[in-house]
Cytochrome C protein
Amino acid sequence: MSVRKVVSVLALLLPLAGFAQAADDKEKAAAVTDENGKYYDAEGNPTFKIEEDGTVDWYTFSGYRRYHSDCHVCHGPDGVGSSYAPALAETMKNIDYGTFLSIVAEGRKNLGAGKESVMPAFGDNKNVYCYMDDLYVYLRARAVGAAPRGRPPKKADKPQQAKDDEASCMGG
């Protein structure tokens, strides 16, 4: 089964399982579990962990890097938006995990007020889909005001699980 199909199924099932969220905030995004350096909120959604000294978890840092590699061209630096793509640092407050996965994998086309906007599908791009959780946690941190603009000043070491997952997804 292709990654695009798996993500589509997840996007449909997660809201039915109670994973849909209204406006996200720091309280909802708080990390309550840690699985090998990857953090999850109370509902089981991937989230960030930022220490008081500004050190971000590996996945948030990786999401920053991936975002600025593949997404900032349209959505602006640090998710602040542009004239033709929304400010993800704002819109992510109202996009649940399943919807995010679906939009990134399948793309989206919006027609309204005489304006057309198109988000291309990245479900076949390993440089994006292998890191969708990383992108999600970085943008979530930006959306709830936990991560400031710019490169995170400090990062946690890359967990072995992240290395293993990356090698598996990228085919290495």
Q: What stands out?
A: Strands lie at 33-35, 38-40, 46-47, 55-56, 108-112, 115-119, 154-155. Confidence is low (pLDDT under 50) at residues 6-21.
